[in-house]
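for the recovery benchmark. tokens below, seq after
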């Protein structure tokens, strides 16, 4: 099928039209595009706020309390709002400003040599507007920078120009990356504690692990025109979990599987939204869900003339790591699988069947 046909289908499709690609159970049924079918909104549900300072205080009691808060939030809906996380608000403001400048000052011609291609498990590089995937004609342009794109590990072979069309941005984003990296082990240890597992089971795998940092730039609606798809179609993340600093402009919507209604979160400025992905659902034997979300046009018409910026950081394990159900969570529903096979088989629905890697393990 031609790419344009897939994109057209994606606007009209149900998620279950692409279920053959899913590597975890997803029973929910929804239209990828907002407004494609009858929809209902849940104005009463509040995504739980979790106080990370309880963990960072270093006390056993504080760690247990944070683990209980976070685990309950994620088991209920797969989303939580982190406050008192220790990431300097100035780093968030600097990243926001840098993303605006990045997309508004670097020409399309300068970006095109960096079109996304698979490196390891992850499609890394530039995604133009309406070309997020072959089925998602999203009204956003983005850029995925994985660990290899940053000067983090004293790699003497590092070449900035391979990843960045202009110097200066790597350093700005690296400062934020390094601050958010400090949250990875507290979050994973808390999840494992909540599930009754050894809290340090993933410490080594998540030290200097891979990630996908994705600056997103949603042009003003007046510039991009009305899209039948909305700003970003419904999807689930494919990672362990994602850190998303609360965007200035609204638009995020989360599907509550319990009643199949959409929630409009309103996280406080400076907070970080956390959500679990397919890796996490797989290793927790479906206990922590990979939750559907999308980005809608703002409900406030005045905000539709403003660009929207977001910069999620998706946390992965390296390609050769095995994903297997954690101990103590019942009879495994899923076989052990290498991360590269799991990841690429899932995301081949976005990039084509030949994107999938089969390892034979």
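predicted aa per position
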């Amino acid at each position: 099928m031609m790419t344009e046909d897939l994109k057209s289908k994606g606007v009209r499709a149900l998620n279950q039209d692409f279920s053959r690609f899913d590597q975890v159970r997803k029973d929910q049924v929804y239209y990828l595009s907002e407004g494609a079918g009858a929809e209902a909104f849940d104005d009463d549900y509040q995504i739980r706020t979790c106080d990370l300072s309880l963990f960072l205080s270093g006390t056993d009691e504080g760690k247990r309390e944070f683990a209980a808060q976070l685990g309950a939030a994620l088991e209920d809906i797969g989303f939580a709002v982190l406050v008192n996380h220790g990431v300097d608000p100035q780093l968030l403001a600097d990243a926001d400003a840098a993303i605006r400048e990045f997309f508004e000052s670097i020409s399309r011609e300068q970006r095109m040599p960096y079109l996304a291609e698979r490196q390891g498990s992850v499609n890394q590089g530039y995604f133009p507007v309406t070309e997020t995937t072959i089925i998602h004609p999203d009204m956003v342009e983005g850029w995925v920078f994985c660990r290899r794109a940053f000067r983090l590990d004293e790699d003497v072979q590092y070449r900035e120009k391979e990843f960045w069309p202009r110097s200066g941005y790597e350093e700005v984003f690296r400062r934020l990356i390094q601050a958010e990296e400090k949250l990875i082990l507290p979050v994973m240890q808390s999840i494992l504690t909540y599930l009754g597992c050894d809290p340090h089971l993933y410490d080594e795998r998540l030290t200097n692990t891979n990630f996908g940092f994705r600056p997103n730039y949603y042009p003003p609606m007046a510039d991009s025109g009305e899209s039948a798809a909305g700003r970003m179609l419904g999807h689930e993340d494919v990672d362990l979990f994602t850190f998303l600093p609360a965007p200035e402009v609204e638009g995020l919507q989360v599907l509550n599987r319990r009643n199949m209604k959409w929630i409009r979160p309103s996280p406080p400025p400076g907070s970080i939204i956390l959500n679990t992905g397919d890796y996490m659902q797989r290793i927790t034997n479906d206990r922590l869900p990979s939750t559907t979300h999308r980005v809608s046009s703002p409900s406030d018409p005045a905000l539709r003339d403003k660009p929207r910026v977001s910069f999620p950081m998706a946390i992965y394990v390296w390609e050769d790591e095995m994903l297997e159900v954690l101990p103590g969570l019942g009879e495994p529903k899923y076989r052990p699988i290498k991360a590269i096979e799991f990841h690429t088989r899932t995301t081949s629905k976005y990039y084509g069947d030949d994107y999938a890697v089969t390892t034979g393990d």
